[in-house]
Specification:
Layout (H helix, E strand, L loop, with lengths): L25 E3 L5 E3 L20 E4 L7 E4 L10 H16 L1 E4 L2 E5 L2 E6 L2 E10 L10 E5 L4 E7 L6 H10 L3 E5 L9 H11 L2 E5 L1 H59 L7 H10 L17 H12 L13 E2 H7 L14 H10 L6 H15 L3 E2 L4 E3 L2 H34 L2 H4 L4 H6 L9 H7 L1 H18 L15 H34 L3 H5 L10 H7 L1 H42 L2 H9 L9 H4 L3 H17 L5
Length: about 650
């Protein structure tokens, strides 16, 4: 293994030999073999050296810290003393380059910052290292062209100490610190050099220009604070004067508002709306008039409370009811026409506070309205739905919705019924339509029943379903249907029923004619010349002719068509079999021609054969018969000698 090479700081990286939480857990014995701390003897007795820098090791195996190796002797091994190395290296590099990047100069006082100088390159003429200044030895001192000095502190492992910084600042020596800790193990010299000159973090430890700027900024801030304090005092005086004037204005507005309330009270007239009077009389003081009247209304307490009750509490039209909450602001807006103009908008908080302090019992319209709504909640007619929002109680809503669904269903049933009656009126001839009076029919009992269609529509259930079914059948009959309905439900539809009977009869006649035509066409195609006789001959086991069956209905036609098809299939099979028999006989004749003399061929072909049970000619009705006939004839021909 090659020995590790130190970087410009003199640091030798041995992280490859480290363990969890400790720097070094491996050492080398005299033969160069690695030995783990767990196998090493305690102290110098381990006899091992550092695998990175080859310095002697001490095995630390105590109870408080994880076992590890350390280097023997202070300042020895693996880059110890690298701060001093870094100073020499940095001085040498700065001597060569004569430039360094200095950070921005910023004055900061009480959180207020001001930039005095941007970050920039600084050029210098000479470099001193480890030169003593007073009680300290700076890392590097740069000599600028005009003779000024800039201290450069290089941090590789430890930042500049507080005592050193304090002495630098007390003497006003310009100084920066460059943090190279993140590069202490780097082996790329170009990166380390760029870090020193420009890239690495750097900050001012002391900058006289910054100090002067901070003194100036502090003076400016002090002057600004004094100016603000003076302005605050001036504004406080103005505010006190304004508050005195405002208090007088508030009192004047409040007294004016109380006067307007008295005027509005004097002009209130009795209730004239008959609907409200009826509602108030029906309520009899149970929910209307259960809270104070309030100041600023242009009507009586009962009138504005009845108006609110009618709009938001009682439900007059169940069909259009929607379950929704309403706000105090919405209720107040609804009552606005009943409020005196001066009270439409609530008084501001200050006027209200003055009146409340001077006249505790006064309640303005929005307050009186809120009192009334809360009283309705206590009475169970409303419920609170959060801050300044109200709605009907759940049990009331459920009851309303249940009745709403019933009424909507009644409306739907009525709509269906009316639509069917209207359809029949539209489809009837004018002279018959005039005799149908929908309103009279709806309100009159149906024939043989005690209930009218209107009553049936309201009740629903099975009677309504039966009514609608009959109406739909009647509407279909009137519109041109063929089903003649006997029960016309008391409607003037006798003529329409007669027309349905005629339509049915005409359709049946047309269908019978069409079935006869289809049967004749099918018979002509399949039976040809025999079609006429077959059509008029009764079918076996039925005792009806095909024409009579077709006239009777579709079932009879289908039976006849199936019979024709069966006859056709049978005849086709016979034709195919006859053709096959002819081919087999042709083949047999050819074979006989080779087996028998001409004068014996006919006799051999037609003569009865005992083995076949028939003549060879007759045996050709099947392939098997043909094969048997050929064998028998071949044997016979062999007995007579070969053909001459």
């Amino acid at each position: 293994m090659d020995d590790p090479i130190p970087n410009p700081f003199g640091f030798i990286d041995h992280s490859a030999f480290a363990g969890f939480g400790v720097d070094l857990v491996w050492g080398l014995d005299l033969e160069g073999e690695p030995v783990h701390i767990s196998a090493a003897r305690r102290g110098l007795a381990c006899g091992l050296i550092c695998p990175a820098c080859k310095a002697p090791l001490i095995a630390r195996k105590g109870a408080k810290k994880a076992a590890h190796f350390s280097h023997q002797g202070k300042g020895s091994g693996c880059g110890n003393g690298r701060e001093t190395n870094a100073h020499y290296w940095a001085k040498q590099l700065l001597v060569e380059r004569k430039q360094i990047w200095t950070p921005v100069v910023t004055a900061i006082v009480d959180g207020v910052s001001r930039h005095e100088s941007k970050a920039k390159w600084m050029t210098f003429s000479d470099v001193h290292s480890e030169r003593r200044l007073d009680r300290i030895v700076p890392d590097i001192v740069l000599i600028l062209g005009d003779g000024r000095e800039l201290i450069v502190e290089v941090c590789v492992t430890h930042p500049c100490g507080d005592d050193k910084i304090a002495l630098i600042q007390s003497n006003g020596w310009p100084a920066i610190e460059i943090n190279l800790r993140h590069l202490r193990t780097c082996q790329d010299i170009a990166i380390i050099e760029r870090g020193l000159l420009e890239d690495a973090p750097r900050s001012w430890l002391c900058n006289p220009r910054r100090d002067r700027a901070e003194e100036k900024l502090r003076a400016e801030l002090t002057a600004a604070a004094a100016s603000r304090a003076k302005e605050v005092q001036r504004r406080a005086t103005q505010e006190a004067d304004r508050q005195r004037r405002e208090a007088l204005a508030v009192e004047a507005d409040a007294r004016e508002l109380l006067g307007a309330a008295a005027s509005a009270r004097a002009e209130i007239r009795p209730i004239s709306d008959p609907t409200l009077l009826q509602l108030i009389a029906k309520d009899d003081g149970e929910l209307i008039g259960i809270s104070g009247a309030g100041e600023g209304f242009a009507v009586t307490r009962d009138e504005w409370q009845a108006t609110l009750f009618e709009q938001f509490v009682s439900v007059s039209d169940l069909r259009s009811y929607e379950d929704e909450t309403f706000s105090l602001e919405r209720a107040l807006a609804y009552l606005e026409p009943l409020i005196a103009p001066a009270f439409v908008q609530p008084p501001n908080d200050k006027v209200r506070a003055w009146i409340r302090a001077s006249h505790p019992g006064v309640r303005f319209p929005h307050e009186a309205l809120e009192d009334y709504l809360e009283a309705l909640c206590m009475a169970g007619s409303l419920k609170s739905e959060g801050v300044d929002h109200y709605g009907l109680p759940d049990d009331v809503v459920k009851k309303i919705k249940r009745e709403q669904r019933r009424l909507i269903e009644v409306d739907r049933r009525a709509e269906v019924t009316h639509a069917l009656v209207d359809q029949m009126i539209a489809d009837l001839p004018p002279e018959e339509a005039f005799s149908l009076k929908p309103r009279d029919w709806l309100d009159s009992p149906l024939p043989g029943k005690s209930a009218s269609p209107s009553k049936i529509i309201v009740d629903g259930e099975a009677p309504y379903n039966d009514l609608i079914a009959k109406l739909r059948a009647l509407a279909k009959m009137v519109a041109g249907g063929e089903d003649a309905i006997d029960d016309v439900l008391g409607l003037p539809l006798a003529a329409a029923r007669y027309r349905a009977v005629e339509r049915l009869s005409a359709r049946r006649s047309r269908e019978a004619t069409e079935r006869s035509r289809k049967l004749r066409d099918a018979a002509a195609r399949s039976l040809r010349d025999e079609a006429g006789q077959w059509l008029t001959t009764p079918i076996a086991d039925i005792d009806e002719t095909p024409l009579a069956l077709a006239n009777a209905g579709q079932t009879g036609l289908d039976l006849c068509l199936d019979t024709i098809a069966a006859i056709g299939r049978l005849r086709e099979a016979e034709r195919i079999e006859a053709a096959a028999t002819a081919r087999r006989r042709d083949k047999l004749q050819g074979i006989i021609a080779n087996l028998f003399a001409p004068n014996l061929r006919e006799l051999a072909l037609k003569n009865q054969s005992s083995p076949l049970g028939c003549s060879p000619w007759e045996a050709c009705t099947t392939d098997h018969g043909l094969d048997s006939a050929i064998r028998v004839l071949t044997i016979q021909a062999g007995g007579r000698g070969r053909r001459r």
